[in-house]
Design goal:
With 440 residues, this protein is of the alpha+beta class. Helices cover 45% and strands 22% of the residues. A hairpin with a 3-residue loop joins strand 14 and strand 15.
């Protein structure tokens, strides 16, 4: 009975009667390759399968898949347990360095007799190194196999490892392309969110402009229609005040005149709020402007019994603003701060102080005008709505003062914020763009 001998991986397999066909030789390799299944994000497990398959098929003592970059070798997978932690080594002086530099497969039967190729790990003498090359020919790593005893590697064995190296290189390349795509998607998603928010804000501003324009047109018509009869009514009331001199009549007429005056003030504020904020911009020395207004602020009826204190910025601060509208904002805020201080607090020196402070922010891009008082705090539920039209925390207030202030601040590209707390009082901050030259 005849016998055919097939030599593979330095072992002899004896088959009786039937010769071993090439497809039978390749079957274990094909099965191992077909069992490999790579999906994005599962690189470690995939490379582990490759290292284990190479060692098993070729009956090697140890196989690793490495990633090589910047003279550093990082073990990505190993057929034997290497312990926890990262396994990173310098390529210098190693057998793997030769593979990475040449980009070619290296077979060393005994590294002790061929030290010119580099050193293997301690305890190993034979070496098979196959480069991992991307589709553009760049070597990104290796599959390295080691044996404790000297060993020759047959061309079929080398080709087997090269097949697995192709799979590993493709997987690693795809993995990093996938990571780059993920990062790109994240950046793109963030950009889309930003652009969407910008579009939403622009659309909201457009709607607000259209709404205000419609309100302005309607308010102007209504205000003019109301003003004429109110003026006639005031003239009649003033006549009755001169004619009827009895105390009850005088009280009634005075009350009616006060209400007529309040109505006229409301009509004036409605016009101020409704009309477009057209700015006459000029460069203003903010410290000097506030200093020039102090006498006017201290003469207001609301400031009686209160102390208005001004704290200027230590350096000159220049802003591009509408002088008259900025004055209007300041008067409104100081007036509100004075009105928030109840009469019974005026005996306490600290509680009756209204402080106006100018301060450059840390980066110097904006200047902050703050008005602070220790009067009655604003209720927490009212605070977020204070700048909405017709929302007021004062008895008899129109609810348009802070709404007008906010519109003026917004028109200047500024930001209005209000904080109120029982322990520290109320502070209104206006942050405006600073046009002063920055210090170098």
């Amino acid at each position: 009975m005849s016998q055919i001998i097939f030599k593979f991986a330095h072992k002899k397999y004896f088959m009786d009667l039937q010769p071993v066909h090439p497809w039978q030789q390749a079957q274990p390799i094909l099965e191992a390759l077909s069992a490999l299944s790579y999906r994005s994000g599962e690189l470690d497990a995939y490379l582990q399968e490759i290292a284990a398959s190479v060692s098993h098929l070729l009956e090697l003592d140890w196989s690793v898949v490495t990633l090589c970059e910047d003279e550093i070798e990082r073990v990505m997978a190993s057929s034997i347990d290497m312990g926890d932690g990262d396994h990173v080594y310098s390529l210098h002086g190693l057998l793997t360095e030769t593979v990475v530099k040449t980009g070619r497969t290296l077979c060393v039967e005994n590294a002790k007799t061929h030290p010119e190729y580099g050193c293997p790990p301690e305890g190993y003498v034979s070496y098979l190194g196959v480069p991992l090359r991307t589709y553009v020919g760049k070597t990104i790593g290796t599959i390295c196999s080691f044996c404790i005893e000297p060993r020759l590697f047959a061309p079929e064995e080398v080709r087997t490892v090269e097949l697995f190296a192709e799979r590993a290189a493709t997987a690693i390349d795809n993995y990093y392309l996938y990571q780059q795509q993920q990062k790109f998607n994240e950046v793109l998603e963030a950009e889309v969110i930003n652009r969407t928010e910008e579009l939403r804000l622009a659309q909201a501003q457009l709607i607000e402009r259209e709404r205000l324009a419609a309100i302005g047109e309607f308010a102007s018509t209504i205000v003019h229609e109301i003003r004429n009869p109110v003026t006639t009514m005031v003239m009649g009331l003033n006549y009755f005040k001169k004619t009827y001199t009895s105390e009850p009549d005088q009280a009634r007429v005075s009350l009616a005149l006060e209400e007529a005056d309040r109505l006229q003030n409301l009509l004036k504020e409605i016009l101020l709020y409704a009309k477009p904020q057209t700015l006459q911009l000029e460069e203003l020395d903010l410290n000097a402007l506030m200093e020039s207004m102090l006498w006017q602020l201290r003469e207001m009826p609301e400031a009686a019994g209160k102390q208005i204190k001004f704290l200027p910025e230590s350096t000159k601060v220049t802003i591009l603003a509408d002088k008259d509208k900025l004055k209007q904002v300041t008067i409104n805020l100081i007036k509100n701060a004075c009105e928030a201080i109840p009469a019974e607090s005026c005996g306490n020196c600290l509680n009756r102080v209204v402080t106006c402070k100018i301060e450059l922010e840390t980066n110097g891009d904006r200047v902050c005008i703050s008005v602070h008082n220790r009067g009655t705090p604003i209720p927490a539920d009212l605070l977020p709505r204070l700048t909405q039209p017709f929302c007021s925390g004062k008895v008899g207030g129109t609810g348009l003062g802070l709404a007008i202030v906010k519109r003026i601040v917004d028109a200047h590209g500024g930001v209005l914020s209000i904080q109120s707390d029982k322990s520290v009082g109320t502070e209104v901050n206006i942050r405006l763009p600073n046009s002063s030259p920055k210090k170098t």
